Amino acid sequence: MSHEAPDQREPQMAFDDRDIYELPPEIPPQWFSNQIFVDHVHPAIAKAALWCHYIYCTVRFISILTSSEWTGWMWLMLFAEWAVGVQANACLSMTAKASTRRIQPRLRLRGEENLPRVDVLVPCCGEPIEVILDTVRAACTMDYPSSRYRVLVLDDGDSGALCRAIAQLRSQWAPHLQYHTRGKKPAQRGFGKAANLNHALFTVQETISPPEFFTILDADCIPSTDLLRATLPHLLRDPQAAVATTRQYYYNLPMGDPLHQAADYLQSVFFPLHALCGGSVASTTGSLYRRLSISQLGGFPTISYDEDLVLSYLLPTYGYRSIVVPDILQFCRVPTSLAGHIAQRKRWYLGFAQQTMALQSSPDNMIPQSLRRRLFWQGMCFVASLVGRAVSFALLPCLLASGQQLVPTTSALIGLRVQSRLAIIYLVLIWLHEWLQFARSGFRAAPFSYLEDSWFTGAQLLYLFQFFLGGTLAQHALVTGSSKNPLNRSKARLSSPWNCIRYLWETSVLYNVILLLVTVAAMVYAISMSPIDENQGDDHNLVNSVTSLLSRWAWPPICHLWYLSVVNCCVPIVYLSVRPAYPDRITSFRRTSADVPSPSPEMYKSLLHRFRCPLGCGYHFLLVLVGLAVASLTVLAL
């Protein structure tokens, strides 16, 4: 698919610094934002952990290869260690390579005259009308001259009720509001969010004078009043920037966010690091786009449900870049049920996996040939990472219950002493890095948060398998906020024991209960079956006993994997046990006389200062610290 930029464009206006002013940071600088820590200390630790992982895996490989006693269990143990450990390497590499540029300042555009024209696009498809109207009302009353921006509702659900509601708002107090639809939705992929946006860019806007910029709001994302004035200065200052992207803040997060629905790893770790490494980040909702730049790219990519992810890779290919705006500028909504959360994440991860389709020749594929192979391999790596997680955590109880030696103690080149000391050094470094990353994110993205969705990795793989084999997946065509999506209902129908069991299985709760019990039982069994020499008074026999334990269940990396597996399995179990309450829109927003929602001071403050306990839930990081100390002393005593 390709589109030419329209001939009729809003002329780009020149602005100087007198039109733009800078605001102070919303949160005072903390110790973890110190430049010495950010530019030198943390990158050095990340680089050391990365290289230590490479060296450790190489040493383990050579030790097994040169051992006269190697078994298949040893190779499986090495695979489990590598498959989980390698998932941290992307974050380690970005932390080590991140530039010393400071984050983008908070800017505002002043004035009322000669401002650039902007279109606010609100794509929707079946979401509850009251949710859409809240977004529309907030968009129509932003702090920007109504003569300089329009709000275009792009309804792929072809809802007559929504059309009438929009017409009523337009006639009452929003003349800059418009409703557009592509008609009834046929059974084809072209009716997706990306194609809906492209229809607005190349069909709707071509019939009128196109604006210089446009922004996108998901149907359930309420903008702040200063969204346009906060994002426009960044693109006005930098002509090479095509996107000013904003973070997503969720107004209805339950206390403690037990399902990690805020996506803190992406929002607080991956995206900022990716931007500091010179990469582009284009999150669709709440972002401001330079229309000419997106037109030159051919619009939004339609080969994947994650059009913003693919767009992020396209921008540098055309010489454009993106800017991450630090302000709180939009208030989004998370699914209010376990099934709804899983449906949303399945759709996200399906979009990641759809990058493997970049090599296909089809009308949907607008990806340049030079980028297709890279996207394909990124999609393959993502699928491989899911397989690695699922296999590693499923292997763990088998390894523990086998009673076999998992680490070679005799090797022609490398003994247990070298392997164990390298293992301890790596674990200390990776835990130190993860905790420092935790602090750097404002104590939001918990340690090892890149594994936060590992508890339903098996369900993800099954979903991908069904999709790519052409199975019937009715839900993948529906946005996760749609009221028609059966997986987004807050109250599951559990009228019979069979329905209850089915619900627990479909939401991966039953799978995690089984895996948790098996993993804990396997560790208990391995400890109870530990071969202990009866002559404990003999130092030589004591060393032999410790060596035997280290080569089995007491191997530090296997204890580390056991901890990660137990923590991940507990996520859905704790969620169903606690049944957290989700704040509703009524209590989260204040209402004007025109029923326009605006964030309450309490909600805004809670979003700004949200954090997790620095020492972990129940202060259990102290136990991890003690465990690492005991393991270190034991290994050093060998």
TrEMBL record:
Transmembrane stretches, by residue range?
375-401, 422-443, 463-482, 503-527, 561-582, 613-637
User: Where found?
Assistant: Membrane
Keyword terms:
Glycosyltransferase, Membrane, Transferase, Transmembrane, Transmembrane helix
Gene3D superfamilies cross-referenced by the UniProt entry: Spore Coat Polysaccharide Biosynthesis Protein SpsA, Chain A (3.90.550.10)
Question: Pfam families attached here?
Answer: Glyco_tranf_2_3
**Which GO MF terms does the UniProt record name?**
glycosyltransferase activity
How this chain sits in the membrane, per its record, is: Multi-pass membrane protein
InterPro entries associated with the record = Glycosyltr_2/OpgH_subfam (IPR050321), Nucleotide-diphossugar_trans (IPR029044)
For this UniProt entry, what's an example GO CC term?
membrane
Predominant localisation class = membrane
Instruction: Give the highest taxon in the source lineage.
Output: Eukaryota
The protein's name in its UniProt record = Nucleotide-diphospho-sugar transferase
What taxonomic classification does the UniProt entry list for its organism? Eukaryota, Fungi, Dikarya, Ascomycota, Pezizomycotina
